[in-house]
Amino acid sequence: MSKEARYGLLYSEYEYSSYVRIQSEKCCIIVACFPILAMIFCILYSVLFNFEGAVYTHCDVYNWLPSISAAIGSFSPQREVWQSAVTIQAIPRFFYAFQYLQFHYSLLYPHDFWIAQVAFFLSMVENIALILLSFFVSSQYYSVHKKAFITFIISSEVYMILTCILQSRFKKQFRISLKWKKRFLTTNLIFIVVAVYFFMRHNSFCEPYVYSLFALAEYIVVFSNMAFHSTAFFDFQNKDFVIYKHGFTLTER
Question: Does pTM top 0.85 for this prediction?
Answer without folding.
Answer: yes
